[in-house]
Amino acid sequence: MSRLTGSDRAPGLLLGDGVELPDDVELGAYVVIHAGTVVGAGGRLQDGAVVGKPLALGARSTASRAALAPARIAAGATVCAGAVVVAGATIGDGAIVGDQAHVRERSTIGAGTVVGRGSAVDNDVTIGARVRIQTGCYITAFSTIEDDVFVAPGVTFTNDDTMARHGPDYALRGATLRRACRVGGGVVLVPGVEIGEEAFVAAGAVVTKDVPPRGVVMGVPGRVVREVPDEDLLERWT
Q1: 186-to-155, 176, 198 alpha-carbon distances in Å
Q2: Within this chain, do residues 152 and 110 fall inside the same structural domain, yes or no?
Q3: Which of 3, 115, 173, 219 has its CA 20 to 30 A from that of 43?
Q4: Together in a domain, 151 and 201
């Protein structure tokens, strides 16, 4: 565990060695910023936020144990109350990590993206710009979410068909969500599926196969029932 030292910049603030913290960063009470973390100008770290938290893995975890770069919170980004950003994660310009959310190592959150309250972004996830991830979502390791995607509350990504009964050479596979697709509330995505550009997955679906661009998917298992019409495409609303 890195050494932490109290600071009078905010009530209960604890700082690790070598933290970069510009004067205009807004700090709540009882914020913890671990060694080497870089916070950009105009950032906000709300009450109880923990940034740059050292990695902690279980004895049987298959996640990489390689040394991690410091966490980076870009200019104008917000880490909300009680949220945790692990060392090695990067939060982009103006992005928001919601209350009690969790972002793990080597994951990247793009500019202007919002991660909703209590959502978890696992390790080695790439999330693009202007993505909206709502409350209580789980974005599993090795997933990719491109720009302008919408992920409704309670969506669950998965990445292990064997549920941990595999050898060391088994590759975990998260889902890939292409640009401007929309995934409805409570959807489950099985390992390795791809949701095509501008596709729409209705609430409660279980997606077991790739979804084509502009496909509308419903049901358990999910099936394509029609195509997203031209008037529903993102360009119509931006």
Answers
A1: 5, 17, 19
A2: no
A3: 3
A4: yes
Residues known to be catalytic: 166
- Give ∠ CA 119-102-11 in degrees, rounded to 5: 120
Same domain, 45 and 149: no
Pairing of strands 176-177, 194-195: parallel
Residue 132 lies in a domain: no
Instruction: Tell me the whole-structure pTM to 2 decimals.
Output: 0.95
Provide φ and ψ at 101, rounded to 5°: -80, 170
Range of the domain at 148: 140-163+170-238
Tens-level pLDDT at each residue, the chain (238 residues): 568 999 999 999 999 999 999 999 999 999 999 999 999 999 999 999 999 999 988 887 878 888 899 999 999 999 999 999 999 999 999 999 999 999 999 999 999 999 999 999 999 999 999 999 999 999 999 999 999 999 999 999 999 999 999 988 899 999 999 999 999 999 999 999 999 999 999 999 999 999 999 999 999 999 999 999 999 999 888 7
